[in-house]
Design goal:
Blueprint (H helix, E strand, L loop, with lengths): L17 H55 L10 E4 L6 E2 L4 E4 L4 E7 L7 E7 L17 E8 L8 E8 L9 E9 L6 E10 L4 E3 L4 H7 L3 H6 L40 E7 L5 E4 L17 E6 L2 E11 L4 E6 L17 E6 L3 H4 L4 E9 L5 E4 L11 E3 L5 E8 L7 E5 H10 L15 H8 L3 E7 L1
Antiparallel strand pairs: 1-3, 2-6, 4-5, 6-7, 7-8, 8-9, 9-10, 11-12, 11-22, 12-15, 13-14, 13-22, 14-15, 16-17, 16-19, 17-18, 18-21, 19-20, 20-21
Length: 466
C-alpha cells in the first residue's frame, strides 16, 4: 500500500493597518469639514445676495410710491393772464410811473342745489375776497416821487381815460419838476390797452403838445381829431408843493393843542359805532352816523365825539363818502390798539361788534355771531349776524379777529340778512385818501370769546350832536 503524502505547511503573515486606517479616517474627516466650510461660505454669499435683492426691491417700491403720489396730485390749471396797468389818482409811489399787476382768479368750489335737477347738488366757484395794497405815506418820502391823476373819458370813441403824471424831486419841491399826459385806448383786435403820450409840461412852463405821426395815431386806434380833443381832459397839477393837499397824519385837530378833553355838550345826541384803524387816532364809521338828517348833506352834526370807555374825546371828520356810506374821523390822541384788516369768503363766520339800542340794553359793547351770505356785490356784502340801530359803523370780524366789513344797515324785509361794506372797499377808500391801515394775513384762529376781547380794544361809540 502506497504511502500518503504528508500535508504542506502554509505560512500566514498578519499585517496591522490600524495606523493607516486612522490616517485615512483623519483625511476623510478633514475633507468633510472642508466641504461643510465651503457650503457655509456659499450659503453666506447667497444670504447676502438675497438681502441685497430685498433692499433693491424696497427702494424700487418707495420710488414707485413717490412717482404714483406725484402722478395722482391735482394738476394746477394754466391761468391765462393779462397784464394790466393800474394808474393811481392820489397815492405817491417812489420813482414809479405805473404799477403793473396780473389778475389771477382765485376760486374755491362749493356745493349748491342744482335748480334744474333738485335735490342734486353741483359745485360752483366762490370768489375769495382779496386785500388792496396801500400806498406809502407822503411824510416818509424824501426821494423823487410821482403823483398820478386819472380823468375818465366817455364822449370820445376808443379813448377811455387821460392820465397826468407829476414828478417831484422831494416833498419840499415848490412845484412839479415835470408833468406828462397820456391817454389810454383799446388795441384793435385784442383786449389790451394802448398808451399814447400827447403832451408835456416842464416845470412852470406852458403845456406843449407832442407831434404825433400818422403811424402813432394808427397804432393807437383813434382818430387824430379825437386825440386832439382829449387834451382838454389832461388835468395838470398846480404850481405848488405836493404836500399842501395832503393831510398830515400827526396834525392836531385844532390849531391850539388841548391839554385835557372838554366835557361833552349837554342835551340829546345820536350815536353809532366806530373802530380805530391806525395808531394816529384815525377811526372808521358809517357816513350816516355823523350825518343824521337826510343823507343829502354832509357835516350835519354840530360836533362829533368818540366815547372810548370812560374817555369822551372830540373828533374831526377827515373824509366821507355818501354812496359807500363811510366816514373817517380823527381824534387828537395816539391809539395803541387798532383794527387790522383780513379776508373773507362766502359762508364763513363773522362777529359783529357795536352798541345796539344803548338806551335799552346799556352802553357796553355787544357781540353777535353769524356768517357771510354773499360777497357778490362790488362794494357790499350780506351777513346774518343780528344787528340793530347803534351797530352802524361797527366792525365785522372774521374768525381770526380781523376786520372784513363794516356794518351798514339792517334789511327791512329780511331781518336775518343785513348789509355791510366790504373790507376791500374800505381799504380801497383809505388808500385813495392816503390814510394808513394794516392788512394781516395771519392763519391763527381765535375762539369767539377771544375775538370779542380783541375787538373791544379798538371798537368805540361815535356820538353826533345835531
Amino acid at each position: 500500500m502506497a504511502e500518503k503524502p504528508s500535508p504542506k505547511s502554509i505560512e500566514y503573515v498578519e499585517n496591522d493597518f490600524s495606523s493607516l486606517n486612522t490616517h485615512v479616517d483623519g483625511i476623510l474627516y478633514n475633507e468633510k469639514q472642508i466641504s461643510r466650510l465651503k457650503r457655509y461660505r456659499v450659503d453666506r454669499v447667497r444670504i447676502k445676495q438675497f438681502g441685497l435683492i430685498l433692499l433693491i426691491l424696497g427702494l424700487l417700491a418707495i420710488l414707485l410710491a413717490i412717482a404714483y403720489h406725484f402722478l395722482k396730485m391735482p394738476v394746477k390749471p394754466i391761468i391765462q393772464t393779462v397784464v394790466k396797468t393800474e394808474y393811481i389818482d392820489m397815492p405817491i409811489y417812489k420813482e414809479i410811473e405805473v404799477i403793473k399787476y396780473i389778475d389771477k382768479p382765485v376760486y374755491i368750489t362749493q356745493k349748491v342745489p342744482d335748480p334744474d335737477h333738485p335735490p342734486v347738488y353741483i359745485e360752483v366757484p366762490v370768489y375769495i375776497d382779496r386785500p388792496v395794497k396801500v400806498p406809502i405815506q407822503v411824510g416818509a418820502v424824501t426821494d423823487p416821487f410821482t403823483f398820478f391823476h386819472t380823468k375818465e373819458i366817455s364822449d370820445l370813441n376808443n379813448i377811455y381815460s387821460a392820465i397826468v403824471g407829476a414828478k417831484y424831486e422831494s416833498v419840499e419841491s415848490p412845484f412839479p419838476d415835470f408833468q406828462y399826459c397820456y391817454i389810454l385806448g383799446k388795441n384793435l383786435g385784442s383786449n389790451t390797452l394802448n398808451r399814447l403820450n400827447i403832451a408835456d409840461k416842464d416845470g412852470v412852463n406852458a403845456v406843449t403838445s407832442r407831434n404825433l405821426t400818422d403811424t402813432d395815431i394808427k397804432e393807437f386806434g383813434a382818430s387824430r381829431d379825437n386825440i386832439t380833443k382829449s387834451l382838454k381832459y389832461c388835468e395838470w397839477y398846480p404850481d405848488k408843493p405836493a404836500v399842501d393837499d395832503i393831510i398830515d397824519p400827526k396834525a392836531p385837530i385844532i390849531n391850539v393843542p388841548i391839554q385835557d378833553n372838554p366835557d361833552m355838550p349837554p342835551g340829546s345826541y345820536n350815536y353809532g359805532t366806530g373802530f380805530y384803524i391806525n395808531n394816529n387816532g384815525y377811526l372808521v364809521t358809517n357816513q350816516h352816523v355823523i350825518d343824521t338828517k337826510d343823507n343829502k348833506k354832509i357835516d350835519d352834526c354840530s360836533s362829533v365825539w368818540v366815547k372810548d370807555g370812560a374817555s369822551k374825546i372830540p373828533a374831526k371828520v377827515i373824509e366821507q363818502d355818501l354812496d359807500l356810506d363811510i366816514a373817517v374821523l380823527k381824534i387828537n390822541q395816539v391809539t395803541d390798539n387798532y383794527a387790522k384788516f383780513g379776508g373773507i369768503r362766502t359762508a364763513e363766520d363773522v362777529t359783529a361788534l357795536g352798541f345796539p339800542k344803548a338806551g335799552i340794553l346799556g352802553d357796553d359793547l355787544k357781540a353777535t355771531n353769524g356768517n357771510v351770505s354773499s360777497i357778490a356785490n362790488k362794494n357790499f356784502l350780506q351777513y346774518t349776524a343780528p344787528t340793530n340801530s347803534g351797530n352802524s359803523g361797527g366792525p365785522l370780524l372774521n374768525n381770526k379777529g380781523l376786520v372784513v366789513g363794516v356794518v351798514k344797515a339792517t334789511a327791512i324785509d329780511l331781518q336775518s340778512t343785513n348789509l355791510g361794506i366790504k373790507g376791500t372797499s374800505v381799504q380801497n377808500f383809505l388808500g385813495r385818501h392816503n390814510i394808513k391801515f394794516v392788512y394781516d394775513d395771519s392763519d391763527v384762529m381765535l375762539e369767539k370769546g377771544d375775538i370779542f376781547d380783541v375787538g373791544k380794544k379798538f371798537t368805540v361809540m361815535v356820538i353826533c350832536y345835531p
